[in-house]
Amino acid sequence: MDSSKLNILVLDGGGSKGVYTLGVLKELELKLGEPLYEHFGLIYGTSTGSIIAALIALGYKIDEIEKLYLALIPKIMMPITKAGKSKALSAEAKKVFGQKKFDSFKTNIGIVALNYETQMPLIFKTDIQQAHGMKQSFKAGFDCTIEQAVRCSCSAYPFFEKMDIDTENHGEIEVIDGGFIANNSTLYSMIDAYKALSIKESSIHLLNIGVGHYIEKTSGVFLNILKKIGFFQFIERVLTANTNSNTIVSKLLFPNLDILRISESYSEPKHGTNMFEYDPKKLKKMIQLGRGSYAKHEKEILKLLQIE
Question: Whole-prediction pTM value?
Fold first, then answer.
């Protein structure tokens, strides 16, 4: 990777819909012919995006991540209760990440969660250079394991249980899904790059990939009850609102930033889905939609990343 520029990859949250993200990244990695971590000096992810970001930063290829996702999603999303979902997430995260800590990453990363007690962002980072204060007590990932950080970012309360962690410099914290504070963490990644890492705006190239937009479809008694009382619509609006606000503020603060966001809309009923999707056919179809989005934006992506 060219040391004179900084490529940033930002991956949105969205539960099972993260497979769309994998479709875009699959084609990009095939085009590059090398693992993605070698082309991005900073990777930020929220919720499902944090899982993908962590695996990329550990050196996994997208084909490997895709196989993991297609196996993990049904195990995590099928349980009805939040306790069941959280137990499954914990078990699978420990299988995938083990006891690895942030020194295992091959590139810098930011995993976004929300401190439930203070309502402030809690971002697990790799390098002390990313710190904006308290550098004297900085510990990569707050000295947590990767699986703990990822589970914090994915704890979509009330569908999942809150996470309790014991950090090195902030003590015991109750944490929930980062999607409630920055489902799209573009702004946070830029604050790291521009302010903490002191990278010139003109030297930054940022690729932001969402999870696509679909007609919200529910299945099962519990989810249908939530739909009737408007809960899904509320959550969707919260995620969309902070995604939009982070995108808008980023453009206002960094008007000359070389940035590309990919997240297509699919209004056909046949593509209807939700963040708890576990139908293998639907998941594979979303991957194909992501690959199609790459094809649509390929020239823009290659220009952004300055790839021949």
Answer: 0.92
